């Protein structure tokens, strides 16, 4: 757990830096990636509004990306990004996928398992370039010149490689941003019908959960613990992580640290005393495998002496979410919403 927890902590700190201090909300401002009149057909060259962030910068900026034709060689930066593309019928165009960890989407596992696995951890630019892509797709935080990044958007574009930063993964993104990402990718690859079909399926599932929870009139409070080990207990505030927060809003949960920046102390957690605690479940593969038992993960919280005074512990209101559901910034978040909704309110899903 320590190896994975350390990696995750580094990624969370990096993600927090990327999301903090953004005075604008690109996703909210640029929600229409393609016009309604363009939904049924693709004409090239195609102009798409997306995002870029200079190395070391804090804010994402709008950038126009021009596609002379549909890309043929895609690198997906994570499992969740690759599974997204598979649902749109694009598996045969994916030449490599990085970040192959976390809970898989079993509905596309057969296609996913045929893809070239570029690494169980986040991949570097050199690894991504080793398969000669003409398109890199995924989460915003991974477009960086770092050991865990595939290179900045501008650097890749200068190499003649088109990019798409998922709108859900930049400040201002919400779960509804997923539908815009699906629509835009459907347009880029000329598969609008597949995109519409996938969106309709997700919207139906989302509506079912939200309708079931309409009877909940009072939101509960929660805090998210991303490391439950007694010696390294840490809380992720999720400041400006709008997609993360939107997931829990669907569950009628309010993050007690949503407006807090920086490290959250155990003392602050005890003072806030949230109704519910959510912690992280790693479901990884091979040598990176750690805790795969959700009950054991919950037990780490329930038996942690630092947390014994919390109402959530006393009332056994501790729940586990998978990494890909919390930090995949993709449609798989809905899997996590469905799971947590049934655990929080089992009486509503009989």
From TrEMBL:
Q: Which InterPro entries match?
A: ABC_Transporter_SBP (IPR050902), ABC_transptr_periplasmic_BD (IPR002491)
Question: Which residue numbers delimit the Fe/B12 periplasmic-binding domain?
Answer: 73-348
| Pfam families (alphabetical) | Peripla_BP_2
- Signal peptide position in this chain? 1-27
The source's domain of life comes to Bacteria
- What keywords does the record list, in alphabetical order? Signal
Q: Which PANTHER family match?
A: IRON(III) DICITRATE-BINDING PROTEIN (PTHR30535:SF7), VITAMIN B12-BINDING PROTEIN (PTHR30535)
Family of the protein in this entry: Belongs to the bacterial solute-binding protein 8 family.
Quote the protein name from its UniProt record. Periplasmic binding protein
